[in-house]
Amino acid sequence: MPMTFDVSSSPHIRSPEDTRFMMWWVAIALLFPLAAAVYFFGLQALLLTMVVTITAVVSEALFQLLAKRPISILDGSAVVTGLLLALVLPPTLPYWMGAIGAIAAMVLVKGLFGGLGFNIFNPALAARAILLASWPVAMTTWTRPFDALTTATPLFLDKMGQATPGYLDLFLGNRAGSLGETSVLMILIGAGILFWKKIIDWPAPAAYLGTVGILALILGRDPLFALLSGGLMIGAFFMATDYVTAPVTTQGRFIFGMGCGIMTILIRFYGGFPEGVNYSILFMNILTPLIDKYARPRLFGGKRG
Amino acid sequence: MNTFSGGLHLKYNKESTEFKPIKELPSPQRVVIPLQQNLGCPNDPLVKVGDEVYEGQKIGDSPKFVSAPVHASISGKVTKIEKLPNPCGFDVASVVIEAGGGAKGSVMHNAKTLEELTPDEIRRIVREAGIVGMGGATFPTHVKLTPPAGKLIDTLIINGCECEPYITADHRLMLERADDIIFGSLALAKAVGAQNILIGVEDNKKDAVGALSTSDEKHHLGKNSPIKIVEVETKYPQGGEKQLIKTLLDREVPSGKLPLEVGAVVNNVGTAAAVAAAIKHGTPLIKRVLTVTGPGMKERHNFLVRIGTSFEEVLKHSEGLMEDASRIVMGGPMMGLAVSSLDLPVVKGTTCLLVFNRKEARIYEEKDCIRCGRCIKHCPAGLMPNFLSDYVKLKDWEKVEEYHVADCIECGCCSYVCPSRIFLVQYFKAAKRELQVRKAVCQ
């Protein structure tokens, strides 16, 4: 019998749900939109995703090795970033461009800012913005599902005043767009898993989608089309819910979602781009520290209102 | 069902002891009675080495108001008075009594009935019996029973939540001593002038609700009974004083204030039972019920133990430790104190001896915060533990105060849910102490 015992501060038990648990569940949830991408855009979607994800993991490991930090690739966050980046890329993007995006995400956007927990911008979205600025043509070349003929995205068609796909095609994902953004159905299944596991919560996505829907309605556009098109769904459920780059409180997340919604509508309806989800979320990432400062929870026994 | 915000649904692990009747342990050969077993001021010894004492004799007292006397828990001879190891972590002046011989004498019996006793007399009996908060907080009960002039107390709350996992001492007490708990509640209510008595019990102890509702004492009160037994949601920390008031009365104790600010006084069921014993039989607080449990124990029990019995002796009656026992906790897994040795005495606040093995009580490595917000969502005090811990690490004491560290009830919910295993509560305990020292230095 040992006569000395561990001493440590309470609590002496911990939840089994650690960072690794959360990240791997996000990765699992992302397999659903990925499956839709492979179904609609073929094997190249899978290959691009694998290249991007593996590059993300390897570049994080190499960066941590060079920076003499603990190697943390097993926590799953690099895999999640890789998957998220791949899912917001066009299906025909050259693999090497995707790889450069992954390196930018892990090193420029995440590693140099201090690694998991310290990055200001969502690594996948910031990397996508970098790719868009670097190779604007490749990053806006869209293809039709199944036959891979070059075409325009529904939002672009809408901006040009042309006919857009029907609601059912939009919902199922039978339209041009980034790998994982097209199938609303599969995104909802993935998000459902994360809600079930209590890994994401409703304020940011609900405020985001609600704001877009309501503003579209007020501005005389089709709210359902606004919700089902572009990268809104994957942005609302998988990007605006990113722990590190979004606010920490319920109120803060709600404000964050509303801000994303307003920005998205402004860019889509009045800006030069057909789609604004990417920049909207990056813009709100900047405001996150400010929101965190003011959107605090109500202190128990504190003043009301 | 009303409840407080935040908190956790934990795995309770109470099955192995909740059906085991309280077993009284034989009187030990030696007891160590720390002269301070309450929050507040320490006592001075009333005996000297060589004195013979009788069971129940007062051996330590203090002229200070916020104090509670201590009593000999066995008859025998005082062999030592010196600073000895204490479960709280540092050495405390203690009286050692070896059994055998012993002075003649017995505790004073109170001849009056509860109806005849005045509030002042009840307070005096409670004080003389050395009764403190038996849920583990050990705040002197007579102080709680003395509201400042002009403060009206309308409700006495009796806390039967026992929201910490593993512990079943209060649960068994409610089943086996329901009459005493009802009687004690009436006495406590009379002392503070409360018209209503609410006994809050978590709904995972329905048999306890039944036992209290059908007790003879309750039956005697008839239709006009001031006592209501209320089932509350099983959610940690439901037994937190402010949380229970919120749940039962929908009143929020203002930040930095005491429950009497909202007309309530909260006492534990164990305290009520101790008060009943003191009034009915003159028995001072020299024994208490505690649970011996955990994955590192060979057997698990609820014991009635004399104060001052060593942990080692108590655990011996439960067949001792398993080979892989690695951590001994006094109290529950969420708020209990880990102790480094078994050569420590059971004190008034010892609700439980919980023995873990390394599989159940792992040693964690702290990682960086990923800002998931779980600590905020589960904090019953409405704090932001993530930012608060950052400011503690930066030693930015102004920010630490601005983020309300003083309102932390140290329940441990934040640390429990933190996926990065940050030692949040540990930082807050340290910060509170630091701020206290800073205030003392500045004044």
Structure, described:
The complex is a heterodimer of chains A (305) and B (443). Chain A is mainly α. Chain A has helices at 19-41, 43-66, 77-87, 95-110, 123-134, 154-159, 167-172, 184-196, 203-218, 223-228, 232-239, 250-270, 277-294, and strands at residues 142-143, 150-151. Chain A has a single domain (19-293), classed as Ammonium transporter fold, CATH 1.10.3430. Chain A is 59% helix and 1% strand. In chain A, a hairpin with a 6-residue loop joins strand 1 (142-143) and strand 2. The model of chain A has no long low-confidence stretch (mean pLDDT 94). With 443 residues, chain B is α/β, with parallel strands linked by helices. Among the domains of chain B are: 119-281, NADH-ubiquinone oxidoreductase 51kDa subunit (Rossmann fold), CATH 3.40.50.11540; 374-442, no CATH class. Chain B has 15 helices and 17 strands. Chain B has a six-stranded mixed β-sheet. A four-stranded antiparallel β-sheet of chain B has the order 2-8-7-4, with no helix packed on it. In chain B, strand 5 (58-61) and strand 6 (70-71) form a beta hairpin. In chain B, helix 2 packs across helix 5 (178-192) and helix 12 (385-393) packs across helix 15 (424-442). Chain B starts with 14 loop residues before the first helix and ends with a helix. At the A-B interface, helix 1 of A face strand 15, strand 16, helix 14 and helix 15 of B.
Topology:
The complex is a heterodimer of chains A (305) and B (443).
Chain A: H1 19-41, H2 43-66, H3 77-87, H4 95-110, H5 123-134, E1 142-143, E2 150-151, H6 154-159, H7 167-172, H8 184-196, H9 203-218, H10 223-228, H11 232-239, H12 250-270, H13 277-294
Antiparallel strand pairs in A: 1-2
Helix pairs in contact in A: 1-2, 1-3, 1-8, 2-3, 2-4, 3-4, 3-5, 4-5, 5-13, 8-11, 9-11, 9-12, 12-13
Chain B: H1 15-18, E1 23-24, E2 30-34, E3 44-45, E4 52-53, E5 58-61, E6 70-71, E7 76-84, E8 92-99, H2 119-128, H3 141-144, E9 155-160, H4 169-176, H5 178-192, E10 196-202, H6 206-213, H7 216-221, E11 227-232, H8 241-249, E12 264-268, H9 269-281, E13 287-293, E14 301-306, H10 311-316, E15 325-330, E16 337-339, E17 352-357, H11 374-378, H12 385-393, H13 397-402, H14 413-417, H15 424-442
Helix pairs in contact in B: 2-5, 4-6, 5-9, 12-15
